[in-house]
């Protein structure tokens, strides 16, 4: 038999394979609450504008609320034959209230219906992500405050470059995740427009009130172009773009945690609750949560690329290709939520080994730049020459197999006779860090200023 919703012109039903490729109910059932919300708002507007009767509207709203309860109680029977969440709900509505159900779809198409459902869902998810980001930022701020003066090596090319503080390092991630927070907020602003009432693509001849339904659904205003309304998926792409960038930040932090927790580094120890053991090697404590955060980033980024690729060939307006938007969005959302929660847990729970960090900060001649700066400041050498002199001091230290700060005054004076014993305080990592007081620099005083400012901002965010 042909489809009960659109089968009027069809003599027979679809092939089994057609049904299989066409159906989206296995995943778009996730939109049930948004679909019902959208339908209730639409029906109320239809009654207010006199397009349907109040009696019918009341039946529709009552039926939809019953369906909501059925779905939430797990008693609703989803059917693949009914393709998607929209038709599953509408068919059940007809069972429940009879012919009045058929009036709900007046001045509406599944094209604007699905667009409004998914927007509502993505908007809710954006608020969830914003909250999760705030939680992570707070966890990082706490660790930063605790370790504002904990010296560690700062790296470039993964080689010890200059000493920094662990607090400063944490605050770099606070900056990154705060940009993600601002990106998700921006995305919310732009997606805050309702496509409902665009109907199939051209609008409708019924005297509908799009401003009314937009407001009822919590949108700022209706979208201004009916063609764009049903064909736009920028809101999903922006969500995925934000998610991919945020996942990339999480992955970079995860990678650092993995490196820091190796016995070779020993900078941090993950708590038992965020690590796993090996089934064969009893000594192992593996950073699986961090590795999964790093790994799942590939999945999130894949979803962004996936949907961009779906959309790139879409002529206006709707094409069934666009049904492929949902699994990308849902999986990216679920994955990102989990990644944010796992990272927040790891950051809060990990033990920081300040002694190991400090020891590593002192190795690799990490204060060579401080020596060069001292030669400029105290002896008036041009920086390039100071760089060269310092390079010779490093070479001498290498030759003697000691750290730069362990060279004797005589050794240093053999390279430049102007060097005095003052230099040793400059070569101490703690002093090196303390001296970097430029705005945004690693000096604990500066780091603490940034922590205070961010704490205030996040409390208001
Ligand atoms: N399940 C469809 C989707 O997710 C709903 C819209 C169907 N529209 C249509 N014209 N066939 O995109």
Summary, kept brief:
The protein is mostly helical and 461 residues long. It has helices spanning 16-22, 25-28, 32-48, 54-73, 85-97, 110-146, 166-191, 210-216, 226-231, 234-260, 288-311, 325-349, 354-362, 368-379, 383-399, 409-415, 423-427, 429-435, 444-460, and strands at 151-156, 159-165, 193-194, 221-222, 268-269, 351-352.
Structure description:
This protein is mainly alpha-helical. 62% of the residues lie in helices and 5% in strands. The chain contains 19 helices and six strands. It is elongated, with a radius of gyration of 31 Å. The protein starts with 15 loop residues before the first helix and ends with a helix. The structure holds arginine.
Features:
binds arginine, EC 4.3.2.1, 62% helix, two-stranded antiparallel ribbon, 19 helices, mainly alpha, 6 strands, lyase, argininosuccinate lyase activity, elongated, 461 residues, two-stranded parallel sheet
Class inferred from helices and paired strands = mainly alpha
Distance between the termini: 56 Å
Helix-strand pattern, N to C? HHHHHHEEHEHEHHEHHEHHHHHHH
* Major sheet summary line: 2 strands, antiparallel
Ligands bound, unique: arginine
Work out the radius of gyration.
31 Å
How many runs of DSSP E, i.e. beta strands?
6
Number of helices: 19
β-strand amount: under 5%
* Proportion of residues in helical segments: 55-70%
Give unreliable regions as ranges: none
Which overall shape is indicated by the principal axes computed on the Cα atoms?
Answer: elongated
Average predicted local confidence, pLDDT: 95
Task: Please give the order of strands in the largest beta sheet.
Answer: 1-2
